[in-house]
Amino acid sequence: MNLLFKRILMISAFPVFIAIGVALISPGPFTLEKYINTLFYFSLTIALIGIALYVVKGGFFDFFTYSFKRVSKVLSRAPEIDEQISFKTNFQLSERVNVSYMQAFLYSGLMLTFISIAVAYLL
What we know:
Elements: H1 3-25, H2 32-57, H3 62-75, H4 79-88, H5 99-122
Helix pairs in contact: 1-2, 1-5, 2-5
């Protein structure tokens, strides 16, 4: 089975079971409406994490990290130490995001969000 598909299934299964547990623990009787609402909250959170990873992977924050490093270099009191540190920490933020994890969070979050919306309209 494809690694991306496995990650999507694992990330999708997590909020389904957590939503069941939260809906059972919450006060009042267990209803399908309470479960769907709880699942929607968890799936929307996962979708937002996936969207945030997508924005970071796109390189939107690379300029800001570069600018902050330049400002800290100008304001530092010991430039020779700062050059050694900047050599070790010279990276772009977009290179740190794994594409497979970004896609897994984005696809599973959006899929669960749309499924919970569809089931809520069917009720």
